[in-house]
């Protein structure tokens, strides 16, 4: 077993509510969503942060972040979508495998980052299904 939970997900040894997959990246629902539809995009190849990720993987994550943000917008019609990426514990990074957050935002909503409350499994799968359906 890897000590990295995201590498475990990539390897299929840990579950996720998947939204998208290709050779380089994986998109799935954040298990601790800060808003309904909170989605993560990760490179399949382990890199701890922006300082370490290979340019090819970074480009693939960026392309996928745009595609999934479009899917989130189409599926959930939020007022906005926040894209967030954290490097280092001091910046709030809690899983040390590069990832981009896509967070649907509602006008006037207050955001609490990295809540410790796990999402409801059925709700997460429902969101994943909606976003998958909205992808071209
Ligand atoms: Zn990893």
Task: Note the main attributes of this structure.
3 helices; five-stranded antiparallel sheet; binds zinc ion; 5 strands; single chain; 136 residues; alpha+beta; HIT family, subunit A
Description:
The chain is of the alpha+beta class and 136 residues long. It has a single domain, classed as HIT family, subunit A (2-Layer Sandwich), CATH 3.30.428. 31% of the residues lie in helices and 18% in strands. The chain has a five-stranded antiparallel beta sheet. The longest helix is centred in the middle third of the chain and has 22 residues, at 55-76. The mean pLDDT is 94. Zinc ion binds next to helix 1.
How many separate domains?
1
Strand content: 15-25%
In the CATH hierarchy, the architecture is 2-Layer Sandwich
Largest sheet: 5 strands, antiparallel
Full CATH superfamily name: HIT-like
Question: Which secondary structure elements does this structure contain, and how are they paired or packed?
Answer:
Blueprint: H1 5-10, E1 18-21, E2 25-29, E3 39-43, H2 55-76, E4 80-84, E5 100-105, H3 121-134
Antiparallel strand pairs: 1-2, 2-3, 3-5, 4-5
Zinc ion binds at residues 4, 6-7, 46, 97.
Question: What's the short version?
Answer:
The chain has 136 residues and is α+β, with helices and mostly antiparallel strands. The chain has helices at residues 5-10, 55-76, 121-134; strands at 18-21, 25-29, 39-43, 80-84, 100-105. Zinc ion (ZN) binds at residues 4, 6-7, 46, 97.
């Amino acid at each position: 077993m890897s000590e990295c939970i995201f590498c475990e997900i990539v390897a299929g040894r840990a579950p996720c509510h998947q939204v998208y997959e290709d050779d380089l990246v994986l998109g799935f629902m954040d298990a601790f969503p800060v808003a309904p539809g909170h989605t993560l995009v990760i490179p399949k190849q382990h890199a701890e942060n922006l300082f370490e990720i290979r340019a090819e993987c970074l480009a693939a994550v960026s392309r996928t972040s745009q595609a999934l943000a479009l899917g989130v917008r189409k599926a959930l019609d939020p007022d906005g979508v926040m894209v967030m990426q954290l490097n280092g514990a001091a910046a709030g990074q809690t899983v040390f495998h590069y990832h981009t957050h896509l967070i649907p935002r509602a006008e006037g909503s207050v955001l609490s980052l990295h809540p410790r409350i796990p999402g409801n499994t059925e709700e997460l799968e429902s969101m994943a299904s909606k976003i998958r359906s909205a992808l071209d």
